[in-house]
Specification:
heterodimer; A: mainly alpha; 16 helices; globular; B: alpha+beta; Alpha-Beta Plaits; 5 helices; 4 strands; 47% helix; membrane (chain B)
């Protein structure tokens, strides 16, 4: 049995406290009126005053400046909300991805992975707190406490024919009902499957094994539909005018690669602490293969989406990439380097996939890169050019990872770290590549 | 009697593996094993060095990437610039996304084909090549192990083979 060390507990609590303080600071620091923003912009102008010299008429300029100030004001008001929304969604989806990977193992009747089942079950436990956090943020958005989703604002919709045509799907009650259906479905499936897995510990029963197989298969069908819709609802609808038909796949790739990476990192951590005695470097090798494979899958979808929109050059589509290329060039191309190029080059060598520190190194690159990916998905539509990775963004990551670490490792302590009876347990213990 | 070899036939891959391990434990050297299908872990049990084919494949991929870059630059930018969909036709970099599928395919093409050809050359396989396996049954369902022997150890090796389940043992002149 694993027990969460007091050091780790303290560490996660420290993350939560520091993160919460930073996030509260972020909310307080956000400008509360247009006047504040005007002052701020004025100060910025003064800072590089040499460049400010325009010949246009004064009234026009003043009106334009007012409009600009209001625009920036809305962006800066959104900033702390978007800052917490990105990691909350990202880390929640990691735990969902881990559960998907676990269900895949059940359905594929995989022989290599049963010694890792408890790690996956532990990470899946974050679905409940993570789901609650994301749902609260979505609920507060529908209550107009922020403007993450412009289609929720009736004033915007009244002047926008494109959004008006979408209101049959994009309206707040239906949005909240859908979100509830996805989350309750995912959590229910995870609770049922994990409960059966714990029951299998007492005594092996073929009925339970088969039941888990069927439940996992049903979950995967439910998941692939809801995941697609979830990505439209929670991410794509931020850029309300724009749509992409492979968006669900693209988000799925990001989820899966981060999920497998998280499994690998937690496994290596536990192994380093002397637990998981049956995990050998062939298991790590397999996880690293999945990390590399899903990284390439991510790049494939990233490029597929980009190539078609770049080539067709249709105005309503390219605006999506124009805003990213103009305001987020470093992050936009950085994600390609961190999520595809570096993981591929680091993990291409078969021997490197068996070396723990190399897998950790590649894993950290992948996780940071996929956080950046979510950042580039969400930020341009919410804070636009006023983005900055500052105190609210970093504190949000700390806060959510603190909650994640605390939930996951206390869940890991609740059951033996290796399943006792699984149809393929022996094969997994002797797994050798 | 330096040029004599033992040919031992096995009927099962597990038994073969056991015999290989037993011989290697006693430090006898096995020349070659002929199998009707690849046996998992046999290369490690025989102590063969790891393959370097993957490294060549990576290098061939880089060659393919370079060739395709040069090729598309020559065809589409230098030799005959074409205006397709209003895309910039005077700069490789600005038109690069359109060439990525070609660069990818050529990378895969070079890596795959040159790797197969390298494999054939390295295994000394070419058209009209005469088969090297000493017994035709190794193409059906039998495994054959070939071990160099001399007067001093022939008896001992034969005994090890017999104990480990060889179904036939033959002593023949090495060609």
């Amino acid at each position: 049995m694993y027990t969460m060390s007091s050091k780790l507990k303290l560490f996660s609590l420290a993350l939560i406290i520091v993160g919460a303080i930073g996030l509260i600071y972020g909310f307080i620091d956000a400008p509360s009126s247009v006047e504040d923003v005007k002052e701020m912009l004025h100060a910025e102008d003064a800072a590089h005053s040499g460049e400010v010299a325009m010949g246009s008429s004064g009234a026009d300029e003043a009106a334009h400046a007012d409009e600009h100030a209001e625009h920036v004001f809305h962006q800066l008001q959104n900033k702390p909300w978007a800052a917490i929304y990105v990691p909350a969604l990202f880390i929640f989806l990691i735990s969902l991805g881990v559960f998907v990977f676990y269900a895949l193992q059940n359905v594929a009747q995989a022989g290599w992975s049963p010694v890792l089942f408890r790690v996956m079950e532990g990470i899946t436990s974050y679905l409940v707190p993570g789901g609650i956090i994301v749902y609260i943020i979505l609920l507060l958005s529908t209550l107009h406490l922020n403007h993450l989703f412009i289609w929720m604002d009736p004033e915007v919709v009244a002047n926008d024919v494109i959004i008006q045509n979408k209101t049959a799907y994009l309206n707040t009650p239906f949005f909240l009902i859908r979100a509830a259906i996805y989350m309750i479905g995912w959590i229910l499936f995870s609770k049922l499957i994990i409960k059966n897995s714990r029951k299998l510990d007492d005594e092996f029963s073929l009925t339970l094994h088969k039941r888990n197989f069927k439940l996992s298969a049903m979950f995967l069908v439910f998941f692939i539909v809801t995941e697609s819709m979830m990505s439209w609802d929670w991410i794509m609808s931020i850029d309300t005018h724009w749509f992409s038909t492979l968006f669900g796949w693209f988000v799925l790739a990001s989820i899966l690669v981060s999920a497998v990476t998280t499994i690998a990192l937690v496994t290596i951590y536990l192994k380093g602490k002397g637990y998981l005695e049956h995990v050998n470097n062939s298991h790590i090798h397999d996880l690293a293969k999945f990390m590399m494979g899903f990284s390439i899958f991510w790049a494939y979808l990233w490029f597929s989406q980009f190539l078609l929109i770049w080539y067709a050059n249709i105005p309503e589509e390219v605006t999506y990439y124009v805003s990213r290329l103009e305001d987020y060039p470093v992050l936009f191309f950085g994600t390609v380097i961190m999520n595809w190029l570096l993981p591929m080059l680091i993990l291409i060598n078969s021997d490197f996939k068996r070396v723990n520190w190399i897998v950790i190194f590649a894993g950290i690159i992948i996780l940071v890169g996929n956080y950046m990916n979510f950042f580039v998905l969400i930020m341009p539509g919410t804070v636009g050019e006023s983005w900055f990775i500052g105190i609210p963004e970093i504190s949000s990551i700390l806060l959510i990872s603190g909650i994640f670490i605390f939930t996951v490792f206390s869940a890991l302590a609740k059951a033996p770290l290796t399943v006792k009876h699984s149809a393929f347990l022996e094969e997994s213990k002797h797994f050798q590549y | 009697m330096a040029s004599k070899v033992l040919h031992a036939i096995f009927t099962d891959d597990d038994i073969l593996m056991q015999a290989v391990k037993a011989l290697r434990e006693k430090k006898y050297s096995i020349n070659e094993v002929f199998c009707p299908f690849p046996v998992h872990g046999l290369d490690k049990a025989l102590g063969l060095p790891g393959t370097r084919l993957a490294i060549t494949s990576f290098l061939y991929g880089l060659v393919g990437l370079a060739v395709s870059t040069w090729m598309m630059n020559f065809i589409m930018i230098e030799d005959w610039p074409q205006n397709i969909g209003g895309k910039p036709s005077f700069s490789y970099l600005q038109n690069m996304p359109a060439f990525v599928p070609i660069m990818f395919e050529m990378t895969v093409f070079f890596a795959a084909h040159l790797m197969v050809i390298t494999f054939y050359l390295r295994s000394k396989l070419w058209p009209f090549k005469k088969a090297e396996n000493p017994d035709v049954r190794t193409t059906d369902d039998k495994f054959l192990m070939e071990i160099s022997v001399n007067e001093n150890n022939v008896q001992a090796i034969a005994e090890v083979l017999h104990e480990n389940g060889a179904s036939e043992i033959k002593l023949i002149d090495n060609k």
